[in-house]
Amino acid sequence: MFAIDGKVALITGAGQGIGARLAARLAEQGATVAVNDLRPERARAVADELNGRGLSALAAPADITDRSAIDAMVADIASRAGAVDILVNNAGIPASGVRLTPFVESDPGDWEATVRINVFGVMHCCQAVLPAMLAKGWGRIITISSDSGRTGEARMADYAAAKAAGASLMRSLAKELGASGITCNSVALGTIVTPEMGASEALEKHARRYPTRRLGRPDDVAAAVVWLASEHAGWTTGQTIPVNGGYTTV
Question: What Pfam family is a match for this entry (predicted)?
Answer without folding.
Answer: adh_short_C2
